[in-house]
Amino acid sequence: MSADVPAGFQPAAETETFETFVGPLYEKWDGEDYTCGFRAAPHHGNRRGVVHGGMLFTFADHTLGNMVWARFKDQPCATVTLNVDYLAGARTGDWIECTGNITRETRSLIFIKGQLSIDGKTVMTASGVWKKLGAD
After folding, report:
1. Would you call 7 exposed, middle or buried from its count of C-beta atoms within 10 A (0-12, 13-18, 19+)?
2. Residue 60 region, left (φ>0) first, then alpha (ψ -120 to 50), else beta?
3. What is the pLDDT of residues 41-85, one digit of tens each?
4. CA-to-CA distance for 38 and 49, rounded, in angstroms?
5. Per-residue pLDDT at 32
6. Measured between alpha carbons, how far is 120 from 136 in angstroms, rounded to an integer?
7. What CA–CA distance (Å, rounded) separates 3 from 1?
8. Mean pLDDT over all residues of the chain?
9. All residues at 6 or more sequence positions from 102 whose CB lies less than 8 Å from its CB, including other chains
């Protein structure tokens, strides 16, 4: 494990998935609490020298989706909608974390909110809906 990854985090993907190409991403479980993180690298940046908003969006989708899958014992689920608010920029070298919580569940839909932060400062919020596939 690299010294630039905080203690307790492990690689989030072991195979060549989309996440391995946009990462590397790391995750940490503390009981039922899930945190995902990544160290912003030059390939995460845009022309202005900040982390691309699409990377932050992808990271939120990945993290919140993993939380939904874990909650429902790996039942297939898919993102229906994901809305984000960018509050501040991130730069190369920043350690960015995402956490969240499920706020509501129906028979077929899961509602979740999350936030991305750097050193405890929120840089983006997200809210989304996931559908349990196969549920009516």
Report:
1. exposed
2. alpha
3. 999 998 888 999 999 999 999 999 999 988 887 678 999 999 999
4. 17
5. 80
6. 39
7. 7
8. 90
9. 67, 68, 71, 110, 111, 112
Lookup result for tokens 């979740």: 112
- Give the dihedral of Cα atoms 14, 101, 22, 49; nearest 10 deg: -150
- The b/e string for 27-52 (b: 16+ C-beta within 10 A; e otherwise) is bbeeeeebbbbbbbeeebbeeeebbb
Domains of the chain and any CATH numbers: 10-132 (3.10.129.10)
Dist. CA 109–CA 98, nearest whole Å: 21
On the question of pLDDT at 20 being above 90, the answer is no
Interior angle at CA 63, CA 61 and CA 67, nearest 5: 110
Residue 13, token pair as written in the block:
């993907």
Q: What is the pTM of this model?
A: 0.90
Q: Which residue is associated with the tokens 């995750």?
A: 27
DSSP for 71-116 reads: HTTT--EEEEEEEEEE-S--BTT-EEEEEEEEEEE-SSEEEEEEEE
